[in-house]
């Protein structure tokens, strides 16, 4: 008795590597699923929205600008040849760069100093202000990328010291370069003692800045503040807290190593400083570095009371930013 042949199953292909299992071929006309795209974390500058970038920039700009006005009210103390002063409240950019995208904090904080402190007080020197902007930009960005986990005190201390070191070392090099440019080549040997005195003075100023600005008004407040804000302030802007396993990287645009960009930025600051000193040395009152200068000097004209007026305006701007963030947050909740 002959057996009838078993018809072959359609749409199935036997798998020689597994016994008793079959894989089903896709039916004709079925669309091929698209490959999964890489998910970008919100603290990545390419993975956050334009509105979030703007909020980070404006918040850092307002906070640091208002704080810079406050430092103008803090008196300095002179101890012999040394002047003990608070250059700026370093904990503000350190905490912001540790919680948010460091790039936009690094852009916003120096802008805040230029707008709220320099322009409002009538002490804006024009294009020459880019010298300080570049120094702070590099320092804040490096500090923010050094913090992988804002809850770790050691990383916050390293970030604060890195910020102040980059800022003050670069400014010290610029000051030394300015002295070299301002020395007459014919009296270079007689001016050797002056150059050494400037180098020693810049070294002492760096040490005092690390202690006062870097530790007292940088690392210590950041150690207390950053862990308490971590995970609470980011959701207000629709961001996730920083992932310690995937922190921001020191990478420039198009994958260029950031150290190359940082070196170019510092060299640009040095070039601006030397150009400014050269223009002053040759007596060019309206040179390239003074383009856009705004120097009515309101403090000298109206007294120290004008500082309180500028501070009130800055606080009002800060409150407006806070209200704006709250409104944006409320609208997002309603949209959900």
Describe, in plain words, how this protein is organized in 3D:
By secondary structure, this protein is mostly helical. It has helices at 50-73, 91-99, 102-119, 130-146, 153-182, 192-229, 258-281, 298-302, 305-335, and strands at residues 12-14, 22-24, 77-79, 82-84. It has nine helices and four strands. The strands form two sheets. It has a two-stranded antiparallel sheet with strand order 1-2. It is globular, with a radius of gyration of 28 Å. The model is unreliable at 1-23 and 36-46 (pLDDT under 50).
Output the keywords.
336 residues; mainly alpha; two-stranded antiparallel sheet; membrane; transmembrane; DUF8171; transmembrane helix
SSE diagram, text form:
Blueprint: E1 12-14, E2 22-24, H1 50-73, E3 77-79, E4 82-84, H2 91-99, H3 102-119, H4 130-146, H5 153-182, H6 192-229, H7 258-281, H8 298-302, H9 305-335
Antiparallel strand pairs: 1-2, 3-4
Explain briefly what this protein structure is.
With 336 residues, this protein is mainly α. It is built from 9 helices and 4 strands; from the N terminus they run E-E-H-E-E-H-H-H-H-H-H-H-H. It is globular and about 70 Å long.
**Beta content:** under 5%
Tally of separate helices: 9
Poorly predicted runs:
1-23, 36-46
Mean pLDDT: 78
User: Largest sheet, described in full?
Assistant: 2 strands, antiparallel
Report the count of strand segments: 4
Question: Percent of residues in helical segments?
Answer: 55-70%
Strand order of the largest sheet: 1-2
N-to-C SSE series? Answer: EEHEEHHHHHHHH
Q: What is the domain total for the residues?
A: 1
Question: Distance N terminus to C terminus?
Answer: 71 Å
- Rg calculated over all Cα atoms: 28 Å
Task: Return the structural class.
Answer: mainly alpha
Inertia-based shape: globular
């Amino acid at each position: 008795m002959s057996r009838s042949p078993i018809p072959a199953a359609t749409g199935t292909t036997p798998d020689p590597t597994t016994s008793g299992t079959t894989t089903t071929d896709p039916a004709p006309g079925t669309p091929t699923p698209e490959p999964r795209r890489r998910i970008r974390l919100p603290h990545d500058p390419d993975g956050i929205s334009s509105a979030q970038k703007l909020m980070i920039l404006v918040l850092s700009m307002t906070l640091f600008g208002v704080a810079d006005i406050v430092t103008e009210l803090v008196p300095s103390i002179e101890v012999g040849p040394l002047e003990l002063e608070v250059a700026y409240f370093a904990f503000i950019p350190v905490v912001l760069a540790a919680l948010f995208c460091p790039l936009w904090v690094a852009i916003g904080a120096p802008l805040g100093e230029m707008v709220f402190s320099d322009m409002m007080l009538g002490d804006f020197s024009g294009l020459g202000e880019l010298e300080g902007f570049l120094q702070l930009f590099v320092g804040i960005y490096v500090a923010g990328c050094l913090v992988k986990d804002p809850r770790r005190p050691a990383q916050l201390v390293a970030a604060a010291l890195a910020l102040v070191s980059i800022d003050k070392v670069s400014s010290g090099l610029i000051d030394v370069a300015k002295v070299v440019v301002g020395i007459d080549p014919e009296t270079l040997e007689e001016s050797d003692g002056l150059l050494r005195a400037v180098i020693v003075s810049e070294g002492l100023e760096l040490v005092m800045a690390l202690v006062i600005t870097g530790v007292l008004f940088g690392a210590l407040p950041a150690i207390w503040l950053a862990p308490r804000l971590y995970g609470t302030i980011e959701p207000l802007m629709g961001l996730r807290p920083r992932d310690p396993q995937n922190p921001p990287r020191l990478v420039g645009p198009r994958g260029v190593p950031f150290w190359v960009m940082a070196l170019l930025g510092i060299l640009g600051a040095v070039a601006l400083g030397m150009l400014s000193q050269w223009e002053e040395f040759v007596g060019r009152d309206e040179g390239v570095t003074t383009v856009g200068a705004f120097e009515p000097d309101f403090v000298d004209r109206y007294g120290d009371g004008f500082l309180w007026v500028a501070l009130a305006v800055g606080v009002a701007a800060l409150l407006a930013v806070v209200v704006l963030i709250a409104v944006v947050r409320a609208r997002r909740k309603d949209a959900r």
